[in-house]
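Sanity check

After download, print the first record. It should look like this:
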Amino acid sequence: MLEQNKESIFGIQIDLDSRDYLLETCKWARFLAIVGMVISGLLMVLMIFSFFSLSQVNDAFSGFYVLYILVYLGVIAIYIYPVIALYRFSKKLRIGIDQADQLEFNEGLRFLKGTFRYMGIMTIIILAIYSIILLIALIGGISNFI
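Expected structure tokens:
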């Protein structure tokens, strides 16, 4: 795969410059993944700390605390998948490049594709939610004039 004369089905090869770019991408992906994991851990600690500090204020809002925990866990769950996929991308691609292992290289690219697909789907969902909120706000604003 890393040989200068070996070509793929598309006539593309990974030369030394491409190899260096990919290795640097792996380093940054690993850094961002580790930072993301640390942030996820801090969010978990913050959730636990704030849950116990808020639960001592008033027991009448116990349903609120359950909802609070579920929302926090949902946010962490949504955030952790792309972080793990990014880490796996960096690890697999690095192994694939260092050992000239096509299967590891392809697996790394599969994790990168999964990361971008996930982020694209989440972007579409967030844009849809924003559109619905904007539509409701516009209807609410128009109904105030009528």
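If your output differs, re-run the checksum step. Summary of this record's structure: Residues 129 and 135 are 10 Å apart (CA to CA).
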